[in-house]
């Protein structure tokens, strides 16, 4: 089968919008504010910044470098590093498959809540409305009793939009979508934050979030939380940035792009914190209770706390429109990047054209998503899958990847040299130290800390049987799938052109000229 020229970003700005769009997701809006509040308030920003500089950005640069150097998706790129390393790539592909199936359903909920905001249809008890009338959640986790039409149809619409964007390609689909989505997201959220700051009690909310508790810095859990937040918010560890960087030109500025994407992501997180806690301050003031009684995160923040606020404020429907539209846009940009990892990996492995790969692979993900997460047990499946695939899938895969590259293959100096050839900010010894020592130690400690908590008590109060079936089996199953796929004999059929011995950059892709490359990112 003849090789197809690898797609390219139309511009550096297009790549940056896509990378920022992948990083800015649901966790920025509903996870960071709660993590900061629980871990020292304003003092949390210090370990957060240190985590960004010593783990987040170095790992982001590493993924950019591997993707750009080998110009392939994770399994194929890691195979260029060492044949056994492709297991990590397929492990990450399986992780992305799992995440995509449940991530899409949250977007579907957000779309419905845009409509619910008009007339405040959740009534006086948003929590009862969410789990009862809307999700019709089963009281027995694990038993599917039926499907919820109010979730199924918007979820189907989400998948149709995502597959259409992916089918249009990297430049005409993903890049153009992010160029529209990211400015729109920032505009909507800025308006939301300005509105939140004008609410009664907003100042109390900001005081609760940013007043520093310096004594918290002496607690190891605070530092683990900071590194965990940076790690999960930058979209590193599951192949997205390797995939996106594989569409860069050879002259792309890797370190400069990583700095822009990393600080843009963190800036949005802080903006989200301001908007969320200004709103929670108003909620606490209206109810006459302390902030800690209304502070929430995750689903509770988005679909219970915020609807409660909307019902108690003037023109609440407009505030709801801004919030849930922002949530949906942030989710779309991340979901597109997650599915693209799976699509690109299958393309590189089989030589399939984009449209058949999107329809086949993306269609399979959509089918699993619809079958599992539009059921009355969808919220329970989502909760368990998300917890275990994040804690023991993404983080573990990233830990193994860093250890193999830094300790076993000792390829960091070579990758450093490759990045420095075209980057404005040159990498020095700090990069080698961070990836060779700090990042592995932090990720390893996160694993130990998570496992200790896991064995102390069952997550979420679920039964051991449910967690084994829908939690541990998901995380372990992703690894097993990665191993099994990597055992299939490899036959190069497409993707990037064959590489010369020694892992060099090789010749240009068919049809590529220096001029076209200079115009690309």
Automatic annotation (TrEMBL):
InterPro entries: Na/ntran_symport (IPR000175), SNS_sf (IPR037272)
Annotated keywords: Membrane, Transmembrane, Transmembrane helix, Transport
Pfam families the record matches: SNF
Subcellular location: Membrane
Membrane-spanning segments: 12-32, 44-66, 87-111, 144-167, 179-202, 222-247, 259-284, 317-343, 355-374, 389-409, 430-448, 468-490
Entry superkingdom: Bacteria
Membrane topology: Multi-pass membrane protein
Keyword Ribonucleoprotein: no
KW Transmembrane (keyword) present: yes
Signal peptide: none
GO cellular component assignments: membrane
Residue numbers spanned by region Disordered: 495-521
Name of this protein: Sodium-dependent transporter
UniProt organism field: Streptomyces armeniacus
């Amino acid at each position: 089968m003849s090789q197809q020229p690898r797609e390219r970003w139309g511009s550096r700005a297009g790549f940056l919008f896509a990378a920022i769009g992948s990083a800015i997701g649901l966790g920025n809006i509903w996870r960071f504010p709660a993590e900061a509040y629980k871990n020292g308030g304003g003092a949390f920003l210090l370990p957060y910044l240190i985590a960004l500089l010593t783990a987040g950005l170095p790992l982001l640069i590493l993924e950019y470098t591997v993707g750009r150097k080998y110009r392939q998706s994770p399994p194929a790129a890691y195979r260029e590093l060492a044949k056994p390393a492709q297991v990590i790539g397929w492990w990450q592909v399986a992780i992305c498959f799992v995440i995509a199936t449940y991530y899409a359903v949250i977007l579907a909920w957000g779309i419905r809540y845009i409509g619910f905001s008009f007339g405040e249809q959740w009534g006086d008890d948003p929590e009862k409305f969410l789990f009862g009338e809307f999700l019709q959640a089963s009281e027995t986790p694990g038993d599917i009793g039926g499907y919820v039409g109010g979730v199924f149809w918007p979820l189907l619409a989400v998948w149709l939009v995502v597959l259409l964007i992916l089918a249009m390609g990297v430049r005409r689909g993903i890049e153009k979508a992010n160029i529209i989505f990211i400015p729109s997201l920032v505009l909507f959220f800025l308006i939301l934050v300005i509105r939140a700051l004008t609410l009664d009690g907003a100042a109390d909310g900001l005081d609760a979030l940013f007043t520093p508790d310096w004594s918290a810095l002496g607690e190891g859990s605070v530092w683990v939380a900071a590194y965990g937040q940076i790690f999960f918010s930058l979209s590193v560890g599951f192949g997205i940035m390797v995939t996106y960087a594989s569409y860069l030109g050879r002259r792309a500025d890797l370190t400069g792009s990583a700095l822009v994407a990393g600080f843009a992501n963190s800036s949005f997180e802080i903006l989200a914190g301001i908007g969320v806690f200004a709103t929670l301050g108003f909620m606490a003031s209206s109810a006459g209770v302390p902030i800690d009684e209304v502070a929430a995160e995750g689903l509770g923040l988005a679909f219970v706390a915020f609807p409660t606020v909307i019902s108690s404020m003037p023109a609440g429907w407009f505030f709801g429109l801004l919030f849930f539209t922002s949530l949906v846009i942030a989710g779309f940009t991340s979901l597109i990047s997650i599915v693209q990892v799976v699509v690109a990996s299958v393309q590189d492995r089989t030589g399939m054209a984009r449209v058949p790969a999107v329809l086949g692979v993306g269609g399979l993900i959509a089918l699993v998503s619809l079958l599992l997460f539009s059921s009355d047990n969808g919220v329970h499946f989502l909760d368990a899958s998300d917890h275990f695939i994040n804690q023991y899938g993404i983080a573990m895969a990233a830990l193994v990847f860093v250890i193999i590259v830094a300790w076993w293959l000792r390829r960091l100096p070579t990758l450093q040299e490759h990045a420095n050839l075209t980057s404005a900010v040159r990498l020095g010894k700090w990069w080698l130290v961070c990836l060779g020592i700090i990042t592995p130690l932090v990720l390893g400690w996160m694993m130990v800390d998570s496992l200790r908590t896991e064995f102390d008590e069952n997550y979420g109060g679920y039964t051991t049987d449910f967690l084994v079936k829908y939690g541990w089996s998901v995380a372990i199953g992703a690894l097993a799938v990665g191993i099994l796929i990597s055992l299939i004999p490899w036959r190069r059929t497409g993707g990037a052109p064959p590489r010369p011995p020694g892992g060099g950059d090789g010749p240009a892709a068919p049809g590529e000229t220096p001029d076209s490359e200079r115009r690309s990112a």
